[in-house]
Amino acid sequence: IPADRYLQPRWSFDGSRIAFTDGIDVWTMKADGTSRSLITNYAESNEGGKEKPSMASYPIWSVKGEMLCYTLTVYDGKKVLHQLWVVNADGSKPKMFFSEEVDSQFQVFLPEYTNQPFFDVDDERIFYTAAGDGVPNILAVEIKDGAQRRLTDKGAIYPALLPEEGV
To answer: What is the distance between the alpha carbons of residues 103 and 138, in angstroms, rounded to a whole number?
Structure first.
């Protein structure tokens, strides 16, 4: 597993917790290092061979700290899938919001895949980059119903939330 797939720490907005990857799973813990909690269990499902080999990465907190979003790379035979998942902060109710096939296992290391998704200021949607049709663009997905909306058409990466500017 490449080194950039380890740790990837993200502080909750209130500074009380941190989310990170350790190997191929997402974990959380309190800011003082206690109460370490496993959020995903891909290492266990990969070992058992019952599921397709998968690796979670790039966890991010919702603004209110009630949810986490992470990307998942799934190795399905010769296919490699890049997915976007949301889970409650305690690991319950995981839900996939987006999935796309990538050209190769190395493509998931390109900027359009490593740029972290993020929640809007109201925790109602997630913004992310996807490379459908071979061109990376910025999309938004509604948490409530999973409705997706493409925000750019001619190629874009690195979306950013600027709450102080209302953008």
So the answer is: 19
For 124-150, give the DSSP string.
SEEEEEE-GGGS-EEEEEETTT--EEE
How is the beta sheet containing 37-38 ordered, strand by strand? 7-11, 17-22, 25-30, 37-38
Q: Report the alpha-carbon distance of residue 65 to residue 85 in Å, rounded.
A: 16
pTM score, whole prediction = 0.85
Plot region of 91 (φ>0 → left; ψ -120 to 50 → alpha; else → beta): left
> What's the one-letter identity of residue 47?
E
Q: Which of the 8 DSSP states describes residue 112?
A: H
Helix, strand, coil shares of the chain as percentages rounded to 5? 15, 45, 45
Structure tokens at 38: 């496993």
81: helix, coil or strand? strand
Q: pLDDT for 96-116, tens place per residue?
A: 999 988 876 666 566 556 677
pLDDT in tens, 132-154: 777 888 899 999 999 999 999 88
Residues 124/111, Cβ–Cβ less than 8 Å = no
